[in-house]
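Good morning,

Both structures are done.
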Amino acid sequence: MATLLHIDSSAFPGEASTSRAVTEAFRRAWLEEHPGGQVIYRDLAVEPVPHITADAHSAGLLDPAEHTEEQARAFAERLVLIAELEAADAVVIGAPMYNFTVPSTLKAWLDQVILMGRTAGSPESRVKGTPVTVVTSRGGSYAPGTPRAPHEHVLNYLESVLSVIFEMEATFIVADLTLAAEIPALQHLAPLGEQSRADAFEAAEKAARAA
């Protein structure tokens, strides 16, 4: 049975979030392509995972037999998240831009599932080669050549983590100018924002059918 890991991190619910709407479109298309497939869903805004602690980190470097009670408890929480990632045949992640980068909830999840010798830095990693689709939404535009391009720290960060650390097969879908209609200085770009959103839905469905 095929398994999709679906992760949302937007602080906004439902259709108020472009990234949520697009990841949901991905999920629907993926299920159509994989009848009987199962979805593991994590809403990091509703149920955030703990930030990495010294106990959780150090436990990953030790033999489990050497764990303190605190390390064992923290590491057990990490292993649940890691097992979900390892079980996935495909992953879709909603990653809106907040203050030039990813939501802290998503960063916390990544810190928990990056485990050297298992999900990273291991030729036997079960996540290596797994297709992962990232849907990011941005109120303005940070595309190459735009004034704010140097401040884009979502795509470059996630490319490094997903493609370099995990060695996954990453695809990025971007919905730009999602707030153009609401910001007076950007209202003339609202049609471009609407087109970018439509393109994101189309790209998500295409990626889902290929995953």
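Second structure follows.
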Amino acid sequence: MPTLQNSTCHQGSLVCVGTGLNLAGQISVLSKSYIENADVVFSLVPDGFAQRWLGNLNSDVRSLQPYYAQGDEIKNRRDTYDQMVQAILNAVRDGKKVVCALYGHPGVFSCVSHFAIELAREEGYSAKMEPGISAEACLWADLGIDPGNSGHQSFEASQFMFYKHTPDPTTQLLLWQIGIAGEHTLTEFHTSSDCLRVLVEQLNEWYPLDHEIILYEAPNLPIQQPRIDKLPLKDLPFAPLSAISTLLIPPSRELEVNHDILAKLGITAADLG
């Protein structure tokens, strides 16, 4: 049976695009064109510079930032995201060509784009996503690491803490949103040293306390440099963190040869070079 999107596509449309991490320099030609030709552009970008740059591309750019809690207001982020999605969809329902421009990659740690696209398609509108340069892409470039050398694992920090994930200490381990590690209420935007001590204790099952870890933050502007702070795992609870901090834990063990599989393939460890 054909989907509603294929059989009854309404006039309004939605495209979620990524602006990349570095202002103006990391957006694709196609994504920039979508912004320029949209009737309405909704934005979630990190600062006023990025907001003004979008305003130079389109005369109707509407920031979604005001939907977050303001001042002393306590607001669940689920409510915030629902309000953002409804604002986007209301413009689509009005028959407009809508673009949602999101910092980095629109599909990575960005639930608003996924929710909005899913709802738009359910209601019969054309909706899609265009990729952008993510923080992970910048991390590998800035740190000079090829994740293909040992492989890598990637988890949201709080999810890693709350569920029984098992890291492989022979690979690179990325923990995203380390700045809110252990936060479960969806009302706070920072973690605590106590939460980070619990995380260190958890990680110590696979990594020595003196194992070197890296705190990384991608630059937003061409004049900025990436944050690359190296420190022992035991010092993580005392490190300054922000909303864009990412934790990289390099391998603590060498890759282990699977001799049983090599024998079945008719090769030896020496053949691996």
